[in-house]
Amino acid sequence: MKLKDIETNRLILKQTTFEDRNEIFKLLSDEEVVRYLNLNIHLDIQDTDNLLKEYFEGMENNTKFPYTIIDKESKKFV
Fold it and tell me: pTM, whole model, 2 decimals?
């Protein structure tokens, strides 16, 4: 299933892809970020790969809809 991109004045919400893994790892290996999420801190990239695998399997059976949020101006993941 392909998710539709969503744009606001400041943000782009796009379907998460495997190519996003390094940026996702950077965020999810930060204790301050993970503190506010229902996730464990990612200690290595394999943790992120496992999470993405779970998300992508969920997309196939319509139980998960992972979006990546990007700031338009800075192009950074938020």
Answer: 0.86
**Would you say 18 and 52 are in contact if contact means Cβ atoms under 8 Å apart?**
yes
The predicted-structure confidence for 2-61, as pLDDT tens digits, reads as follows 899 999 999 999 999 999 999 999 999 999 999 999 999 999 999 999 999 999 999 999
Both tokens of residue 24? Answer: 């996702």
Look at the alpha carbons of 20, 21, 24, 26 in this order and tell me if their dihedral is positive or negative: negative
Residues in the chain: 78
- Six-digit token string for 11: 């943000």
Cα 20 to the chain's mean position, in Å? 7
Distance separating the N- and C-terminal Cα atoms of the chain: 23
